[in-house]
From TrEMBL:
Homodimer. This is Glutamine--fructose-6-phosphate aminotransferase [isomerizing]. Residues 45-185, 217-356 form the SIS domain. The gene is glmS. It comes from the Bacteria. It comes from Kutzneria chonburiensis. The lineage of its organism: Bacteria, Bacillati, Actinomycetota, Actinomycetes, Pseudonocardiales. The keyword Cytoplasm applies. Catalyzes the first step in hexosamine metabolism, converting fructose-6P into glucosamine-6P using glutamine as a nitrogen source. It is found in: Cytoplasm. The active site is at K361 (for fru-6p isomerization activity). The keyword Cytoplasm applies. One of its GO terms (molecular function) is glutamine-fructose-6-phosphate transaminase (isomerizing) activity. Its EC number is 2.6.1.16. Keywords: Aminotransferase, Cytoplasm, Glutamine amidotransferase, Repeat, Transferase. It is an enzyme of class 2 (transferase).
Length: 366
């Protein structure tokens, strides 16, 4: 009851600004500088079990699914175990094969999403083991799972998820680091990631200072009838979540596409009326991304880039410069400006930001 939007105007904005504190809380007591690893007391996995499973399957709905996609990339990249994320709402209806050598992970802020809960029960019925990545302590999904990680993100009131999404990706980085260090990752790389994780709260603080710039861009990139979001590999789930945020609160039609797939169809949608928001981290795919931006510019498309440095004006009309994390952790930071973009677009359009039409915070029906 004493949780208020305070001076922030809306819960969504307050929760965006809560993120440095929420990330700090989720990291507290979990990082080990000496061994370059993470300690997650609730996992209920012995080091031997952590070494033995052969795949990771992540399941959740909405933003939880996209956070899971970032998680799957982190786990596969760091722990070198094949991992993927699928909407729980699809998985539970397709009679999936449950494999005893797969570690299943259910993701849910509320811990009450019916499709996700039913997925956990279906996996367990067929003998699978499920970890939960859940915010609400003691919720149905948390109780049903065989172990897991609590987000400790604090309450999230706004229907559209912001801080729970970010904290979920941080917790997947912890899980990936933990698994990686019992499998294949060197102590030095582990320590590098621990330092990178510790830096996140202050880096998020730096991003929040960009709010005025982002609010100024919201008119041009967040209120037109159609917006395209693109990213490659690490940038791809960031683009998907960015498009979902914009849809949810501004009701703008936003489409997310892998930058690599643009030329196989959606390039036909590009015109001066349909701007693109491009995720362009300074990683090994930077040059490939610049080529894609050139293809969009050649069709008269306007581009807002999220990048680690100002892009040439011939390739991007505007750049939001985001602080650089360790490369594996970049997606955690790159999503945050997109939350602010969606928020300010919705405010400009006069929508009820915390209670978007047709949506519920937690979908407890089928
Ligand atoms: C609803 C909300 C989304 C949320 C999804 C999953 O659809 O509107 O914002 O991502 O449920 O919620 P959960 O509580 O399971 O993370």
């Amino acid at each position: 009851d004493d949780y208020q939007a305070e001076g922030y105007g809306h819960f969504m904005r307050k929760e965006i600004h809560d993120q440095p504190t929420a990330v700090e809380r989720t990291l507290r007591g979990r990082l080990d500088d000496r061994f370059g690893t993470a300690h997650l007391g609730g996992l209920n996995l012995t080091p031997r079990e952590s070494r033995e499973f052969k795949r990771v399957k992540i399941l959740g709905c909405g933003s939880a699914h996209y956070a899971g996609q970032i998680g799957a990339q982190l786990i596969e990249e760091l722990a070198r175990v094949p991992a993927d994320s699928e909407p729980a709402s699809e998985f539970r209806y397709r009679n999936p094969l449950i494999d005893p050598d797969t570690l299943y992970v259910a993701v849910s802020q509320s811990g009450e999403t019916y499709d996700t809960l039913a997925t956990v029960q279906e996996i367990q019925r067929k003998g699978g083991r499920v970890l939960g990545v859940v915010n609400a302590v003691g919720s149905s999904i948390a109780r049903q799972c065989d172990g897991g990680i609590y987000l400790h993100a604090g309450p999230e009131i706004s229907v559209t998820s912001t801080k729970a999404f970010t904290v979920t990706t941080v917790d997947f980085a912890l899980l990936a680091l933990h698994l990686a260090r019992v499998r294949d990752l060197s102590p030095a790389d582990g320590q590098r990631l621990v330092r990178g994780l510790r830096a996140l709260p202050s880096q998020i603080g730096e991003i929040l200072k960009l709010e005025d710039q982002i609010a100024g861009l919201a008119q041009e990139y967040g209120t037109c009838p159609n917006v395209m979001f693109i990213g490659r590999v690490r940038g791809w789930p960031v683009a998907r979540e960015g498009a979902l945020k914009l849809k949810e609160v501004s009701y703008v039609h936003a489409e997310a596409y892998p930058a690599s797939e643009l030329k196989h169809g959606p390039l036909a949608l590009i015109s001066p009326e349909t701007p693109t928001v491009a995720i362009v981290p300074d990683d090994e795919l930077y040059d490939k991304n610049l080529t894609t931006l050139g293809e969009i510019k050649a069709r008269g498309g306007r581009i807002l880039a999220l990048a680690h440095r100002e892009l040439p004006s011939a390739l991007a009309d505007h750049t939001i410069v985001v602080p650089r994390a360790e490369p594996e952790l970049d997606p955690i930071l790159l999503g945050i400006p997109l939350q602010m973009l969606a928020y300010h677009a919705a405010v400009l359009l006069g929508h009820d930001v915390d209670h978007p039409r047709n949506l519920a915070k937690s979908v407890t029906v089928e």
